[in-house]
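Hi V.,

You were right to ask for the full record rather than a summary. Here it is.
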Amino acid sequence: EDEEFFVTEKIHASQINVIRDEEMNLVLSSKGIIKRGLLIEENETNMYWKAVHNTNLKEILDTAFPGIFVQVMGEAGPCQTGFDYGWSEPTLRLFRIEIENVHYSIVQLKEMVKDNPNIQPIIDLWVPVLYVGKFDGKEFTKLSKGMETVSGKQRHIKEGVVVEPVIPRLVAKGGYPLLCKVINPKYKGEE
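Predicted structure:
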């Protein structure tokens, strides 16, 4: 209960995994296929590659972390009917970063900007942060409801929120990052 948490909006799009190695090579994958060691071959019609190019993500990573292994995960879209967030071209919003295989939260990343202002464009691509503070289940449920904040125009309902500790850690069993998704009841058709 005394631990600090942050809450981000859960975006309804398609998960993208971007890996940029020490030699500045960039590869893409997605949820489900990265576990099998598969990558998405670059081509001009692929939505994931378009999103990376449209946001200048490689250049941003190269400038912020030259010669350092970095992996980011996010949501690429628009690709889900009714959830376009006002995006007319493929784009992405990030929700996770690992620098040299260490997971950092968005709160920690914002602290790093003081020493490395080149990180700011990564923060600008982050999913909206809706809360930072002590664990508060009632507040998290409240934040999961209502309209999306990504576009700033409340274009459609939120899918929900993701709750994570400010200092990332793994769950006790399984070795997965500790996080909790709180889904909007209206999204699930329960309201």
